[in-house]
Amino acid sequence: MPFWTCEQCGAQFPDSAEPPAACLICTDERQYVNWKGQSWIAREALTRSHRAVWRDDLGLLGIGVEPPLAIAQRALLVREPDGGVLWDCIPLVTSEAVEHVRSCGGLKAIAVSHPHFYGAAADWSEAFGGVPVYLHGDDVRWITRPHPAIVNWFGETQPLSDDIVLVRAGGHFAGGTVLHWRTGAGGRGALLTGDIAMVAMDRRSLSFMYSYPNLIPLNPASIRAIARAVEPLAFDRIYGAWWDRNVGSGAKAVFDFSVRRYLAAISDAAQPEETG
């Protein structure tokens, strides 16, 4: 029986003769059902209609899907001597992509920021011998394909190595996670945020939302919680959720400024009147 992928969000569901009636991620108010209606694609069909692609993305290996599928996300590979950590996930695994990652040192773990990026995490794990898939336990109800490799971690931090730690920031989802890479960016530190903190189109600021497509903002308490989670971390670079959506340098100051700007924008304080 086929494994089914939601064409709108890219989440993979268990094998069954028929696809599910609905995608629980897309029917949530943070996402949306495609205007044409709920649609699915079987894993085997997906491998025929799409391909995995990879290229450098500001010093990290990025892996995406062409033609673009779901929310057009890309994964990132953080390499270490004993194997890499795949950050966030795409809906497709191909033998060519697996061989390329192996040529880059292979995988020792997968970590995902939040449910919109679960993709085909179980397939990626199986392709590398069942490496653990770290998902925050606060979001367990959103797991669309249960798998023995999934590690539901709890609390505020989850070290993956001496230099890589997962940090629960919350916000977008209760278990929303960022990855701190202490030795990234040439030793200055890097923060991989998915869209828990969205790198804006100017690539000089970030934003924070409960729902990006439905334009539902986060409340001040959630923004301050994200800021508290990130404050102790040293980093000079931020990697966002899509190709080239990164802050190359000075990212700590950019993050702090963006928090202040967002809180000011949603405050009850009177805004100065325009003059003209």
Describe the structure.
By secondary structure, the protein is of the alpha+beta class. It has one domain (4-265): Metallo-beta-lactamase, Chain A, CATH 3.60.15. It has 6 helices and 20 strands. A 7-stranded mixed β-sheet has the order 4-5-6-7-8-9-10. Strand 15 and strand 16 form a beta hairpin. The mean pLDDT is 96.
Task: Map the helices and strands.
Layout: E1 4-6, E2 12-13, E3 40-42, H1 43-49, E4 51-57, E5 60-66, E6 75-78, E7 84-87, H2 95-103, E8 107-111, H3 121-127, E9 133-136, E10 150-153, E11 157-159, E12 164-168, E13 177-181, H4 184-187, E14 190-192, E15 198-199, E16 206-207, E17 209-211, E18 216-217, H5 220-230, E19 237-239, E20 246-247, H6 251-265
Parallel strand pairs: 7-8, 8-9, 9-10, 14-19
Antiparallel strand pairs: 1-2, 1-3, 4-5, 5-6, 6-7, 11-12, 12-13, 13-14, 15-16, 17-18, 19-20
Helix pairs in contact: 5-6
How would you spell out the order of helices and strands?
EEEHEEEEHEHEEEEEHEEEEEHEEH
Rg, Cα atoms, Å = 18 Å
Main sheet, how many strands, which sense, barrel? 7 strands, mixed
How many separate domains? 1
Tell me the number of strands: 20
Averaging pLDDT over every residue, what do you get? 96
Please give the count of helices. Answer: 6
Poorly predicted ranges: none
Helix content: 10-25%
Spatial gap, N to C terminus: 66 Å
Which percent range describes the beta-strand content? 25-35%
